[in-house]
Amino acid sequence: MLSPIQRKAISLLAAGMPSNRVAEEVDVTPQTISTWKGNPEFVAGINQLVSESIESARTRLRSFANTAVEQLIDLAQNAKAEEARRRASVDILTMLGMSDPSSAAWKHGIGPTTAEGCKREARQRESTEQLIDSLL
Q1: Considering the entire predicted model, what is its pTM?
Q2: Which residues of 104-131 are buried (b: 16+ CB within 10 A; e: fewer)?
Q3: Which tens digits make up the pLDDT trace of 101-114?
Q4: Helices 82-95 + 40-78 axis angle, to 10
């Protein structure tokens, strides 16, 4: 069970504050912070808060994605400078993974087109599943 001081330290560390400043803030020695970092529950607490922070940022970015795409499309279609239109178009293709016609994105969602390719894919999938099972 973590103490209130440890929970405060977790919060500060997860926010990116350096360990020595966290130690000052919660009135413990830097060695104490170091010792706490050896406690799996303490580390898990930091990891949980960092994970939540990253997911929150991703959610915010996802909500902006449609606006960004619309702006890129508008630039590609309406920018006065030809170079700006070209760059916006290339950016769109790159984001879609379509800047390289040999990339898999050009066939997104399409499996192998030969029987041998389908067999190879099945063997790879089976091999991956066996590897995962052996690790568990």
Answers
A1: 0.55
A2: eeeeeeeeeeeeeeeeeeeeeeeeeeee
A3: 665 555 555 677 78
A4: 140
